[in-house]
Automatic annotation (TrEMBL):
Keywords in alphabetical order: ATP-binding, Kinase, Nucleotide-binding, Serine/threonine-protein kinase, Transferase
InterPro entries: Kinase-like_dom_sf (IPR011009), Prot_kinase_dom (IPR000719), Protein_kinase_ATP_BS (IPR017441), Ser/Thr_kinase_AS (IPR008271)
Domain of life: Bacteria
Protein residues bound to ATP: 44
Organism, as annotated: Actinoplanes derwentensis
Gene3D superfamilies found in the cross-reference section: Phosphorylase Kinase, domain 1, Transferase(Phosphotransferase) domain 1
Pfam families linked to this entry: Pkinase
A GO MF label: ATP binding
Name by which UniProt lists this protein: Serine/threonine protein kinase
Keyword ATP-binding found: yes
Domain Protein kinase: 16-269
SMART domains named among the record's database cross-references: S_TKc (SM00220)
Length: 291
């Protein structure tokens, strides 16, 4: 829903006229804007507390550069950014549709071909994102927009700028939504570097939400949810038979044993289960051979 601008909102950011408010998120306020050529765009404006942080601006600039290399395959294209502006802002493709969280909340869980298209679209987006060397880090239903032509994933890579900003990142603070976090995210001191496998875990959790209306690791507090992710069994009740094996593999605790996004996509398109990590080398040779 587009809301009117507030009295203290700017009328423009750079060359972009602001039309209304779309919402707010971890980065700051999100506006509907108009580009010089007349097309509508979404503009994310940084929070005031980031203005004087060279570290944030530098990381933001780096992540935007990498994100612009992601092909627009089930992703909202990054169109422009100005990390040096006061305030810094990011311009992305405007998607006229609700996010997945709102859609499921208002219309109920997805099923059949709609669920298959959503799962496939998310796997397509992650394949494109990971192919550009980017890790999303915060894949969740709120970051999945549902357009008439399919889903569009947003905010990929931008969370990285917040994770390294010392003034806003406490030792016990994690950037992202706990419900969809991979177990390795909870132990940064354990020696495991974050990889694209964390996004695959989030894919499994998001697809479970889309199919059932609930997350696979429910809890009444953040600590309870984290404990279930670390040591519990995911609740996959209600998942259709064709989807359950893929989600089970995606939610494996060991990141090395999860399929890649490309393997998930291949399995969804061919109606097969993703291969295990032990068979991955053979699978990649097969995929490359078909190109």
């Amino acid at each position: 829903m587009i809301k009117p601008l507030r009295p203290d909102d700017p009328g423009a950011l750079g060359q972009y006229q602001l039309i209304g408010r779309l919402g707010s998120g971890g980065m700051g306020s999100v506006f509907l804007g108009r580009a010089p050529d007349g097309r509508r765009v979404a503009i994310k404006m940084g929070r005031a507390e980031h203005m004087d942080e060279a570290e944030f601006r530098g990381r933001f600039r780096s992540e935007v550069t990498r994100s612009r290399q992601v092909p627009p395959l089930a992703t909202a294209a990054v169109l422009d950014a100005d990390p040096g502006h006061d305030p810094p802002y990011l311009v992305i493709e405007y998607v006229d549709g609700p996010n997945l969280a709102a859609l499921v909340r208002e219309q109920g869980p997805l099923a059949g071909a709609t669920l298959h298209r959503t799962a496939t679209g998310l796997a397509t987006a992650l394949t494109a994102i990971h192919g550009a060397g980017v890790i999303h880090r915060d894949l969740k239903p709120d970051n999945v927009l549902v357009a008439p032509d399919g889903v569009k994933v947003i905010d990929f890579g931008i969370a990285q700028a917040f994770e390294v900003t010392s003034r806003h990142t406490k030792p016990d603070h994690l950037v992202g939504t706990i419900t969809y976090m991979a177990p390795e995210r909870f132990d940064p001191a354990g020696g495991q570097s974050l990889t694209a496998a964390a996004d695959v875990f989030a894919w499994g959790a998001v697809v479970t939400f889309a199919a059932t209306g609930r997350t696979p690791f429910a809890g009444d507090s953040a600590s309870a949810i984290a404990m279930r992710i670390l040591s519990g069994t995911p609740d996959l009740t209600g998942l259709p038979g064709w989807l359950r094996p893929l989600v089970e593999r995606a939610l494996t605790r060991d990141p090395a044993r999860r399929p890649t996004a490309r393997e998930l996509l291949d399995a969804l398109l061919r109606g097969e289960q993703p291969v295990s990590a032990k068979k991955r080398e053979w699978s990649l040779r097969t995929i490359l051979g078909r190109r």
